């Protein structure tokens, strides 16, 4: 049986996106926040990272369109801003002149940066304020949307990270993050990034928090117990595939307690289910294969060329984000 944990560790080093890799995104984020504080005519706000940077589950994008998610927590109430889109429009107006394009999207305001018409990176600004019960609420809706498609939805940008930190410690938490990065790269390789055709990263995170279990194995060479990512990933994929019958439902364990997979239509869910079956079959075959090189080639077809050949280490990838002066 092929033990590919060394190859999975190399794979993680190749795909993992750290803060150290993304100084340009940090600089852009800080410049955007400075501009907002300078030009926004109230209300005041504080900010924090959210999404994969906050959870430390980010991976290098295959197409070079790096992104960062930032929460803007406004010192205001939903009663003062009954139309959530109006506050997002005020944010967009204060940032005119930044980036190649600014767009008010359903759940955020996005600043896009391009170079010669090709996407480089973007910054997503999620707008929050407080309701009458002092709960943080996310501004949802686009310009021109009907009233029923606009809402202040209870949500906490840091609740998921707090939940993970409370549930997992040390190396157990590190294994969860690695397994999520493996799944995110598989998603990027196997699915189109357009619309809701691909499962969202937040959906994979919700599924992992529902079905992931820490896996370890005793190393026969020194009899030490070490985390077994290969088994942990396989078991999680088996659970996801078994529960995708006919649709995978994985509610978030924190507000808004929603199921991120609801936006996938039945055909998209069918394709997702088929891909889960292929991934489960490949992981099972690789685990049973007596030839590590052949097992790695089986997985490279689903994880891409960053998954190494057996016994071969790759140089640590560095983020290909251009300097701020070269972005249009």
Protein traits:
17% strand; globular; alpha+beta; single chain; 328 residues; 7-stranded mixed β-sheet; two-stranded antiparallel ribbon; 9 strands; Beta Polymerase, domain 2
Kindly report the oligomeric state of this protein.
Answer: single chain
Strand content: 15-25%
* Gyration radius, in Å: 21 Å
Q: Please count the beta strands (DSSP E, at least 2 residues each).
A: 9
Percentage of residues in helical conformation: 40-55%
**Which series of helices and strands comes N to C?**
HHEHEHEEEEEHHHEEHHH
N→C terminal distance: 51 Å
Characterize the largest beta sheet: strand count, sense, and whether it forms a barrel. Answer: 7 strands, mixed
Total discrete domains: 2
Q: What coarse outline follows from CA principal-axis ratios? A: globular
How many helices? 10
Mean pLDDT: 92
Unreliably modeled segments = none
Structural class comes to alpha+beta
Describe the structure in brief.
With 328 residues, the protein is an alpha+beta fold. It is 41% helix and 17% strand. Strand 8 (216-218) and strand 9 (225-227) form a beta hairpin.
Please write out the topology.
Layout: H1 5-15, H2 23-39, E1 45-50, H3 52-55, E2 66-77, H4 84-94, E3 101-104, E4 109-115, E5 118-130, E6 136-140, E7 151-154, H5 159-167, H6 170-190, H7 201-211, E8 216-218, E9 225-227, H8 229-243, H9 266-288, H10 292-303
Parallel strand pairs: 2-5
Antiparallel strand pairs: 1-2, 3-4, 4-5, 5-6, 6-7, 8-9
Helix pairs in contact: 1-6, 6-7, 8-9, 9-10
């Amino acid at each position: 049986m092929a033990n590919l944990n060394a190859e999975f560790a190399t794979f993680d080093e190749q795909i993992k996106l750290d803060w150290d890799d993304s100084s340009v995104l940090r600089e852009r984020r800080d410049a955007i926040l400075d501009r907002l504080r300078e030009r926004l005519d109230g209300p005041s706000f504080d900010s924090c990272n959210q999404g994969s940077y906050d959870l430390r589950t980010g991976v290098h994008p295959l197409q070079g369109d790096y992104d960062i998610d930032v929460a803007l927590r406004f010192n205001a109430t939903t009663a003062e801003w009954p139309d959530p889109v109006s506050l997002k429009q005020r944010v967009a107006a204060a940032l005119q002149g930044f980036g190649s394009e600014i767009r008010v999207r359903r759940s955020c305001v996005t600043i896009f940066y391009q170079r010669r018409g090709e996407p480089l990176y973007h910054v997503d600004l999620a707008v929050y304020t407080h309701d009458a019960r002092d709960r943080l609420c996310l501004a949802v809706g686009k310009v021109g949307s009907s009233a029923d498609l606009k809402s202040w939805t209870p949500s906490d940008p840091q609740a998921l990270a707090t939940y993970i930190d409370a549930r997992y410690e040390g190396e157990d938490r590190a294994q969860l993050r690695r397994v999520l990065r493996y799944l995110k790269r598989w998603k990027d390789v196997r699915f189109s990034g357009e619309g809701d055709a691909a499962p969202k990263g937040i959906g994979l995170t919700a599924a992992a928090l529902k079905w992931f279990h820490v896996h370890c194995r005793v190393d026969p060479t020194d009899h030490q117990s070490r985390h077994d990512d290969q088994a942990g990933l396989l078991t999680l994929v088996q659970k996801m595939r078994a529960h995708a019958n006919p649709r995978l439902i994985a509610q978030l364990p924190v507000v808004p307690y929603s199921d991120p997979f609801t936006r996938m239509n039945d055909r998209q869910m069918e394709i997702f289910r088929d891909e889960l079956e292929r991934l489960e079959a490949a992981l099972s075959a690789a685990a049973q294969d007596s030839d590590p090189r052949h097992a790695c080639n089986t997985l490279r077809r689903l994880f891409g060329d960053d998954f190494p050949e057996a016994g071969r280490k790759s140089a640590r990838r560095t983020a290909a984000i251009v300097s701020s002066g070269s972005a249009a």
